[in-house]
Design brief:
The chain starts with a helix and ends with a helix. The strands form two sheets. The protein has a nine-stranded antiparallel sheet. It contains twelve helices and 18 strands. The protein folds into two domains: about 5-20 and about 355-560, no CATH class; about 35-70 and about 85-225 and about 235-345, Beta-galactosidase, Chain A, domain 5, CATH 2.70.98. Helix content is about 35%, strand content about 25%. The chain is elongated, with a radius of gyration of 30 Å. The longest helix has about 35 residues, at about 530-560. Mean pLDDT is about 80; it is low at about 1-15 and about 25-70. With about 550 residues, the chain is α+β, with helices and mostly antiparallel strands.
Length: about 550
């Protein structure tokens, strides 16, 4: 049996499997490599969600329904025919638009992050438009006797007057009163930060005690972001984190099918909506019991909410709830400082244990070099240097295989179609020459997890977005505008194949020659930062292989001349 043929076809088959898996994920189907079995009816401990009575039950109801249960969170049906006003506030990094109807955050522009392909316009993360329905909402439920507390569909009045940040912070305040409860929402924005302090003051202005519950909610449609690529998969969906079950993410397709798996009751953690490079997240007070809900509120509109019982408030008394809202890029350092586990929205999957150190190394290199393109080059060089002993062993094995290639061809011609005798003769030659036919493959297999991790680090890092390198490469997160780097990568792949021993099987040889065209063609649409990494990696591999092969040739020639 030709071992090299087997190894080649195993690699080829595995590549096809990975491509099919990514296609499945791209179309909203579960990964072929497993994951927790979805369940929508129970929490992490197998207890039905309704078993916890810490907060009122919150079934979804249309906003226009007058018969809605007092404790329900209003749905997102037809907008209420109530006059509203938009309040626009600006900091050095954010331009936010609030709607006085519900004091909702209905638009968020990230001033430091230009829109893809539009460098003169900021990225719009939240919006309420024909192309995107993505908002942050809060409200109070739990009123009795058919009354309603202020929700995200209740008219609020803006109390604050400042609209432009002049100092280190900017405060925006809204008030509303309904059902004997006055709610004051205070949003405090900070200079240079994407986390917003959100304070809710609930005052009982009625004559009877009340037991309200506060909900924090994110609503988003199920459409992919406008700059989503068809050639590589990035996650867009909802995530829930708790100390018990850690990071749990759900696609919109799973939510629609009621297959979303997440913890229903917790006293810690957060909820978030995640997309490539950016995220929004509500971080409620920690240590207080609450319910989490993820659901489809109407066709192609999904909600993630957390609901916390505030407790009894006597007439004339008040209660305060402090929470945080993140609206911005997936800045791992800042997100980790805001809440435990929030940096996990940058999801590296099962390779996190390798990817995290790689990202830290990359950020350290950038602090020295100051350019993300050169950081990628330096990081690739360091990794290649680390794995040089394994790579050297692999290249020596391939060099020995190349030296005996004429003898292998002679054996093939000698034995013709007698595969049994051919394989026996090949194995005998391998033993005589002390060659391991797998010696060129196994060292490379060890390196695969590291290079896959580096792939995901480069793909997921928002630091790459809008980052220039040199000359024609002005943004490492989008494709090379002139396809120069993909062309270089294809050339290096062809050169690598020429340096390797020619497979004895003509079919194998043809497959090897086609692979640069296939992978190079794919790279035409990949981010320039990823292609730069592959170009540097291939170039270093060629240099290592050529030098090792030349050294072995000189050694062989010297031995022959003795």
């Amino acid at each position: 049996m030709d071992i090299r043929r087997t190894v080649l076809w195993m690699i080829f088959s595995f590549s096809l499997l990975l491509l099919w898996n990514n296609w499945q994920i791209h179309n909203g189907k579960p990964s072929l490599f497993g994951g927790p079995t979805p369940t929508a009816s129970a929490n992490a401990n197998g207890t039905p969600a309704a078993a916890n009575n810490a907060t009122p039950s919150v079934p979804t109801a249309p906003a226009a329904s007058a018969a809605a249960a007092p404790s329900t969170v209003p749905g997102a049906a037809t907008p209420a025919p109530t006059r509203s006003e938009e309040v626009v506030v600006t900091t050095d990094v954010l331009r936010l638009t609030f709607d006085t109807l519900g004091a909702q955050l209905v638009r968020a522009e990230l001033l430091k992050y230009p829109a893809t392909g539009q460098p003169d316009k900021p990225t719009v993360l939240l919006d309420r438009s024909a192309g995107l329905n993505y908002v942050a909402q809060t409200g109070v439920v739990g009123a009795a006797n058919g009354q309603n507390f202020p929700t995200h569909l209740t008219p609020f009045r803006v109390v604050s007057t400042e609209r432009q940040m002049t100092g280190d912070s900017l405060v925006v305040t809204f008030e509303a009163e309904s059902g004997g409860v006055k709610v004051t929402k205070t949003f405090t924005l900070h200079r240079g930060r994407y986390d917003i302090d959100v304070r809710h003051d609930l005052a009982n202005v009625g004559s009877a005690p009340v037991t309200p519950a506060l909900y924090l909610q994110l609503e988003r449609d199920g459409n992919d972001p406008a700059d989503t690529s068809s050639f590589y998969h990035t996650f867009t969906g909802i995530a829930v984190y708790s100390e018990q079950d850690k990071f749990q993410k759900m696609t919109f397709a799973d939510i629609e099918k009621k297959k979303a798996n997440y913890i229903k009751q917790a006293d810690n953690g957060w909820i978030a909506v995640v997309q490539h490079y950016f995220a929004t997240a509500w971080v409620p007070p920690q240590g207080k019991p609450r319910n989490n809900e993820v659901l489809e509120v109407q066709k192609n509109l999904y909600a993630a909410r957390t609901i916390e019982a505030v407790g009894e408030i006597a007439p004339g008394a008040a209660a305060r709830v402090d929470s945080h809202l993140w609206v911005g890029p997936q800045d791992q350092k800042a997100m980790a400082a805001l809440a435990p586990g929030l940096e996990l929205v940058v999801d590296y999957g099962w390779l996190t244990i390798i990817a995290k150190p790689l990202f830290k190394l990359m950020t350290w290199l950038h602090s020295i070099l100051g350019n993300w393109g050169w950081t990628i080059v330096a990081l690739t060089v360091l990794i290649k240097a680390l794995f040089y002993p394994l790579a050297a062993a692999s290249y020596r094995s391939m060099a020995r295989m190349k030296q005996v290639a004429p003898r292998l061809q002679a054996l093939k011609e000698k034995y013709g179609d007698d595969k049994q005798k051919l394989n026996a003769a090949m194995m005998e030659m391998y033993r005589t020459e002390k060659i391991n036919p797998l010696g060129g493959c196994l060292p490379m297999v060890v390196q695969i997890p590291v290079f896959i991790s580096l792939y995901w680090v480069l793909l997921a890092s928002v630091e790459m977005r809008g980052a220039p390198w040199i000359l024609w490469v002005h943004d490492l997160s989008i494709r090379d505008p002139y396809f120069i780097l993909p062309a270089i990568m294809m050339a290096t792949m062809f050169l690598q194949i020429k340096l390797n021993p020619t497979p004895p099987d003509p079919v194998q040889a043809k497959v090897m020659m086609i692979m640069p065209l296939v992978f190079g063609g794919m790279m035409f649409f990949f981010p320039a930062g990823l292609v730069l990494y592959w170009c540097v990696n291939n170039t270093l591999s060629i240099a290592q292989q050529w030098s090792i092969t030349r050294a072995m040739q000189r050694k062989t020639e010297a031995a022959a001349n003795r």
